[in-house]
Amino acid sequence: MSNTIGQVGPEQRVHTLPRPRKPRLSQWIAIWKKHKHSYILIMPFFLIFGLFTVLPVLMSMLISFTYFNMLEFPKFIGWQNYTRLFLDDDIFLIALKNTILFAVITGPVSYFACFFFAWIINEFSPRVRAFLTLVFYAPSISGNIYFIWNLIFSGDRYGFVNGFLIKVGILLEPIQWLKEEQWIMPVLILVQLWLSLGTGFLAFIAGLQTVDRTLYEAGAVDGVRNRWQELWYITLPSMRPQLMFGAVIQITTSFAVADVSIYLAGFPSVNYAGHTIVTHLIDFGTIRFEMGYASALATILFIMMLGTNLIVQKWLRKVGD
Amino acid sequence: MFSFLGMMGAFMALPLVFAINAAFKPLDEIFLFPPRVFVRKPTLNNFVDLFTLMSNSWVPFSRYIFNTVFVTLMGIIGHVLIASAAAYPLSKHRFPGREVLFTSVVLALMFSPHVTQIPNYMIMSWIGFIDTYWALIVPAFAFPLGLYLMKQFMEQIPDAILEAAKIDGASEYRIFWTVVMPNVKPAWLTLIILLFQLLWGNHGEGFIYSEQLKSLHYALEQIIFGGFARHGVAAAVALAMMTPPILFFIFAQSRIIETMAASGMKD
Predict the structure, then answer these.
(1) Residue A119 burial class via C-beta count within 10 angstroms: exposed 0-12, middle 13-18, buried 19 and up
(2) To the nearest whole angstrom, how far is the Cα of B192 from the nearest Cα of chain A?
(3) Considering only CB atoms, which chain A residues are within 8 Å of B190?
(4) What does the radius of gyration of chain A's CA atoms come to, in whole angstroms?
(5) d(CA A41, CA B177)
(6) Do the strands A66-67 and A75-76 form a parallel or antiparallel pair, or are they unpaired?
(7) Dihedral of the CA atoms B193, B151, B105, A140 (nearest 10)?
């Protein structure tokens, strides 16, 4: 019967809580006096952040309820952009499918790869570690890298992949990797994975440096038997803040894949096979001048990331239990 | 294990290998078909051409370099100071509004920057930032990324250290500067790496129109667009643009590792 008691408890507490009243001016002043230093320290950041980030985002959300061609004043049209997205835009549905595919595959794989490589690299001596970090971070630091993949997946027999497969005897004819619908997504996902050791990876490298060394000694005394137990019971829980940061970064990048698709598969790609929500958004925002519609796309994408983030953060709280 | 790491490493290092080799290829090797990875007769011609083109530019080339270095430096210094200062109370103090403010920073990371460009332009022109350095520098002070990164690292600092400093009579500002910041050195070194990359590669597009305020990246791109015969120069440009962030990366990464081996956070 202990179950029912446990369930009733919190509800009762909710009822007995006094209703929070709106603080009066004098109370505001009291709050300010008590936390003056905190507010002074955060103020410069949040003033600039509010002006150059929050305000533009709110304005975009408002614009998503309008028809706005960037020449005339925006015209309010209610939910029309949103209904058009889901009911009248077949290409959006393709983009939605591809975006989810990218997120489901590259998101988790990249995240684990970031941690795994950071963890392995951390075992080496400092000099080797700095060198290996550079090597693995190379795709993220070296600017325009897509032309390499154009050489590798070039559609003629001189492309490295075609050349190799023909030589080995698997293929007789070269495959148009970036022009045939069934190959575009697999190739793009591969390249996106190759790009995945970015911001999250660096945060993990730095995070591993801050784990308290004495915890490992204490763990050995408490009966941690192998490296995996050490990882699960000591390293991961100590790094929880970095793990959460990495997850948010991974969500924002894997849902917003666009450059890879534009540079490798073209814009638009053959039959929209590599189209994503962000390429769709760029199409409407910069080519068709339909800013209201593009803003609606951005809002939908935002809601998708938000939902995923809530779920992932809930999982991450369980790490190391 | 080691062979796996080696193979993955070779695969990841591809862009560096390509870029270095391409920059030293003579023109005939660049258009060789089928393409080769490694250069056979290395030459410095591409760099010589690049310098000739640079000396021909209308605005002295040093001006473009100054612009980029100035924006990058100011952006980094301002961002690290302002974002860290805000991250400290958010991670260690309890005050009304804390949750809302922090959540807004995380949410801001998720909104696609492509659609905020127009509202952004409008705000810039209201406050008169268009065609000044400020349009590039001031927004960089409050990128959400840095605050989030710093806050996550500061959460790991044991409260006991802060309490001890407070009992010794240190003010909040002093604690921030002499206790908190040294303890999160890996975090701000990482943040500087990320910012350097971001600001170094900026074009200033949309906000900067005067030729003498334009960035190095923009000026070098104009050289590349000069035609087909500039392919060799383009490769030299790519390598030249890539080098400062990489050198800085190596410097900062080795510092991250050094410091923590020495200090280590303890209660």
Answers:
(1) middle
(2) 11
(3) 202-203, 205-206
(4) 25
(5) 12
(6) antiparallel
(7) 20
The burial of A124, by beta-carbon neighbours within 10 Å (0-12 exposed, 13-18 middle, 19 or more buried), is given as middle
B173 and A37: CB-CB below 8 Å?
yes
What is the reported pTM?
Answer: 0.85
Please tell me the total number of residues recorded for chain B in this structure. Answer: 267
- Helix ranges restricted to H, A66-89: 80-88
Contact B142 A55 (CB under 8 A): no
User: 3-state SS of A22-45?
Assistant: CCCHHHHHHHHHHCHHHHHHHHHH
Ordered alpha helix ranges (H), A210-258: 213-221, 227-230, 236-238, 240-255
Least Cα distance to A274 among A265, A282, A283 occurs for A265
Contacts of A121 (CB under 8 A, 6+ apart): A129, A132, A133, A136, A205
Inter-residue contact A32 to A43 (CB < 8 Å):
no
Radius of gyration of chain B (CA): 23
Asked if B86 and A45 touch (Cβ cutoff 8 Å), the reply is: yes
Asked if B218 and B201 touch (Cβ cutoff 8 Å), the reply is: no
Asked if A113 and A103 touch (Cβ cutoff 8 Å), the reply is: no
* Helix, strand, or coil (residue A317): coil
Strands (E) across A150-281 are located at none
Closest by Cα among B83, B256, B259, B93 to B162: B93
pLDDT along chain A (321 residues), means of 10: 41 50 78 86 92 91 88 87 89 92 93 92 83 87 74 77 82 81 89 88 89 80 81 86 92 89 84 89 87 91 92 84 65
In chain B, % helix, strand, coil (3-state, to 5) comes to 75, 0, 25
Residue B174 pLDDT > 60, yes or no?
A: yes
